[in-house]
Each structure stands twice: as structure tokens, then as C-alpha cells.
């Protein structure tokens, strides 16, 4: 489900309609959504064990913070 949502976001971002004077604002917003998705993926893969067997985000963050 996630992958299809990301694929759809990419399709939409490649074919945005004309928003007139708001074109740059909308393009920046879409770019920031993409940065957020990529940042979250980086965090989950490199800084937590949340998506490993038995993993949980809270215990991973406790180790980083302390």
C-alpha cells in the first residue's frame, strides 16, 4: 500500500496542473513532502530497529537520546 501511494505521489508530482501564480509554492510543497518521506525512510532504516523482528521505536530512541 505504501509503495503504491509513493508511486502515485511521484506520478502526480511529475504532472502538476498549472496553479498560476502559486506554481512555485505548490512545487515547493510537493518537494517538501518528498523530503519528508525520504527522511522518514532514512530514519527508520538507519536509526531505529522498529521494523525488525521485535523492534520498537521507543526503545531505539531511548538509546539514542541517553
Description:
The protein is mainly α. It is built from 3 helices and no strands. The chain has helices at 2-14, 23-46, 57-65. The model has no long low-confidence stretch (mean pLDDT 82).
Count helical runs. Answer: 3
Unreliable stretches (pLDDT < 50, length at least 5) are none
- Biggest sheet features: none
The N- and C-terminal alpha carbons lie at a distance of 35 Å
What's the helix-strand series?
HHH
State the helical fraction.
Answer: 55-70%
Report the strand count. Answer: 0
Mass-distribution shape: elongated
- Structural class determined from secondary elements: mainly alpha
* Rg from Cα: 17 Å
Report the mean per-residue pLDDT as an integer: 82
Give the amount of beta strand, in percent: under 5%
Short description:
With 66 residues, the protein is mainly alpha-helical.
Task: List strands and helices in order, with pairings.
Blueprint: H1 2-14, H2 23-46, H3 57-65
Question: Could you list some keywords that capture this structure?
Answer:
66 residues, mainly alpha, 3 helices
